[in-house]
Amino acid sequence: MANLYNDELASTYDAMYQGFIDYTKEYKFYASLCARYNSKTILEIACGSGNLAKPFSQNFNSYTGLDLSDAMLNIAQKKHPMGTFLKGDMRDFKSNVFYDSILITGRSTSYLLSDVDVLNTLESVYNTLEPNGVFIFDFIDAERFLPFVKANKHITHKSEYMGKHYFRKSQWVQKTDSNLIDWNADYYSVKNNKNVFLGNDTSTFRCFSSKEILLFLSKKGLKVVELVNRKTYAFDTYVVVCKKI
Known about the structure:
By secondary structure, the chain is an alpha/beta fold.
């Protein structure tokens, strides 16, 4: 990922995604799952710019956000000065604190490009979960997304936030015989009816089949207790709720 989570585009990402996503609804969705399993302490992995931090902190006993990007963490801390945010890689983090709910939201599992990345992340999660805790994450469904990519190699997503207008022009290319997608995106704001180029980001991300996810989880001692089919502004996803076996 070249720029999206670095200083160059972090503030653009933060503004644009608040136009893409209703974070009040997003919070209610995840909070209801956590409450269903009597969660009190929350760790959000890949918390980004902290759009879920404040409501989780207000309504649960504790909340910690973990992210690899300094630029995103700086934005999150400014939004929620009393919040607890840590820098860390989901593939290799260790904690002396255990949580009864660990979340990976926003399809951030798509940046786990290799099987080793996935398994290392699940091991870190397993080692940080309380015995009766739940791990909740979403993933891009390959069976629906790959045909979509083939039919829509170019797509534009528009966003409005705080009276400002943005749009993102994306180009997707599937890598040969894989679930990996090369993504090139140009970001623009609209001012006085003119398009102002804000920056470019290139990255590779991964989509998964449900069978793959179930196999990864079983290898790391995690059992699925719920599988929720969920639409987002851009991708078809599943949200998985699992527990330690």
